[in-house]
Amino acid sequence: MASREFIAHWSRDAILQAPAVLPLLKVDSQFLLREMPMLHRTLVAQRLIALFVLGWLLFNYPLLALFNDTRTWLGLPLLYGYLFVAWALFIALLAVIVEQGVSRKTPTRAVGSEPASKD
Q1: For the segment 53-106, what is each residue's pLDDT rounded down to a tens digit?
Q2: 24 CA to centre of own chain
Q3: N or C: which end of the chain has fewer CB within 10 A?
Q4: Comparing C-alpha atoms, which of 81, 82, 87, 79 is closest to residue 54?
């Protein structure tokens, strides 16, 4: 059986488009499709942890000390410009990671709405 770390890097589309490779890996495609939501959650969690570490590095002493200078950029102190750009990048990466996690979930109906009728 293939390891979960290896499987986590495969997307659902890649699994469905590579049926010739799966027997070589001795992996059951139905097992992979069943396990994908759980593996995707762990992948999103790993990305969020990596983003936390990146934020910790970006907003901690060594990098902040590099930009704590009297120079200016577009009339702003260099430290303020760095903080603004790093914070905007951090928020954009967070939005991308979270939105990818939401878009891959199965659609759910809104609270109070009726299920679709099967005519």
Answers
A1: 999 999 999 999 999 999 998 899 999 999 999 999 999 999 999 998 776 654
A2: 29
A3: C
A4: 87
pLDDT at 33 over 70: no
Point out which residues pair with 77 in neighbouring strands.
72
Distance of CA 60 to the CA centre of its chain: 23
Q: Nearest-CA neighbor of 103 among 40, 51, 47, 49?
A: 40
Residue 77, classed as helix, strand or coil, is strand
**CB of 15 closer than 8 Å to CB of 32:** yes
Inter-helix orientation angle 29-58/78-103, to 10° = 170
* Residue type (1 letter), 17: Q
Are 51 and 97 within 8 A, CB to CB? yes
Query: What is the reported pLDDT for 93?
Result: 96
Q: 94 by DSSP, 3-state: which? A: helix
| Ramachandran sector of residue 74 (left: φ over 0; alpha: ψ -120 to 50; beta: rest) | left
φ, ψ of residue 19 to 5 degrees: the values are -70, -25
